[in-house]
Design a protein that fits this description.
- This is Pimeloyl-ACP methyl ester carboxylesterase.
- Keywords: Signal.
- It comes from Nocardioides ginsengisegetis.
- By secondary structure, this protein is of the alpha/beta class.
- It has one domain: 3-Layer(aba) Sandwich (Rossmann fold), CATH 3.40.50.
- It has 12 helices and 11 strands.
- Strand 6, helix 5 and strand 7 form a beta-alpha-beta unit.
- The longest helix has 17 residues.
């Protein structure tokens, strides 16, 4: 059939414009309205990992936010949910920074059709824990495993409405720094996820600045504190976390930073050792992301980290020039996110 003249002219005129666009990989829900919904999970604060630490064994409620295309968030089933696991010192806000939409990692993923679950881990923000010594890194990994299971089965609830929640056919863990360590430990122990995106983490890359911060925290915890701060001030936090983030982004992050549960702090050493011993058991495809100016995790350790995985495990590594530790909030965040979206499409479809 002959195309109408106006339609043909419109197509020709559009070609130069289209040539300059970066087209995101096709995904169910891409182009749909992005919405958020608060959800809750009932989890047992237990440690089923090899990390040598104890938790209170009680049932707790963990709060999170589903962020994605409307058709997926309100649907019965989602092809893939990305679980975003925050670091110590931060919180779920790290993935949804208020007041700076360009640095809202979860919403910008949703623009490309990806649905994410933004967790507040137990002991942080919307998931409070009265006794910071009542959990630990091993328990955090175990509770993350429970969240993965609940996502697959649809066994969780909207916080404010009695309607069915979507179940996930596939689950990917995206973790930052210690959150990446927790995600890696979960995958190595329970072998229940389809992919890992690990930012600013390696089993052997902690810098002296990172070690000093944990030692200060540990001293406070051993003196009887329930919670302890990694950085001594907002200024120090900004210097350690960022290399290129806009000043406004840094100020908001510094204002929102958290103290950490002492049970998590005091189990970090065992978690490092256990993670190092178990990395070779991971079978899920893995994307390792680093900033070249990270002051907390030495990017030169990336090759050792890559080589620690099982020989048959697909592992991809990328270093972003000029970026610091907080990759989703650095000026290179758009490039980092584009790399993640391409990897998800190429590796998992």
């Amino acid at each position: 059939m002959r195309r109408p003249l106006l339609a043909t002219l419109a197509a020709v005129l559009a070609l130069p414009l289209l040539a300059g666009l970066t087209v995101a990989p096709a995904h169910a829900g891409a182009g749909d309205d992005v919405i958020t919904r608060a959800v809750t999970f009932s989890v047992d604060n237990t440690n089923g990992t090899r990390v040598a630490c104890t938790a209170d064994g009680q049932v707790h409620t963990v709060h999170a936010t589903l962020v994605g295309p409307r058709s997926e968030v309100l649907g019965a089933s989602v092809d893939r949910i990305n679980v975003l696991v925050h670091d110590t010192t931060t919180g779920g806000w790290f993935w949804q920074l208020p007041g700076h939409p360009a640095y809202d990692w979860a919403s910008r993923l949703a623009d490309a059709g990806e649905t994410s679950l933004v967790l507040d881990r137990l002991g942080y923000d919307a998931s409070p824990l009265a006794d910071g010594n009542a959990t630990c890194i091993g328990a955090q990994a175990d509770m993350l495993h429970q969240v993965v299971e609940h996502l697959r089965s649809g066994h969780y609830v909207y916080a404010d409405q009695p309607r069915a929640v979507p179940s996930a056919q596939h689950v990917v863990l995206q973790g930052h720094s210690v959150g990446a360590a927790i995600a890696q430990l979960e995958a190595a122990t329970f072998d229940d996820v389809d992919g890992l995106v690990l930012m600013s983490w390696s089993d052997s890359g902690a810098t002296q600045a990172a070690i000093d911060g944990v030692q200060r925290q540990s001293q406070a915890c051993l003196q009887g504190a329930d919670y302890a701060a990694f950085a001594t001030s907002g200024k120090q936090f900004r210097r350690l976390a960022f290399a290129s983030a806009p000043a406004g982004v840094q100020r908001v992050a510094a204002r929102l930073r958290n103290q950490d549960p002492c049970g998590d702090v005091l189990s970090l050493g065992s978690a490092y050792a256990t993670s190092n011993a178990l990395t070779h058991q991971i079978e899920a495809p893995t994307l390792l992301l680093y900033g070249s100016k990270d002051r907390l995790n030495d990017p030169s350790s990336k090759d050792r980290q890559r080589d620690a995985y099982k020989s048959g495990t697909p592992v991809t590594t990328k270093v972003f020039a000029g970026a610091g530790n907080a990759l989703p909030l650095e000026r290179t965040a758009p490039q980092t996110r584009a790399r993640v979206i391409r990897w998800l499409a190429a590796t998992l479809g």
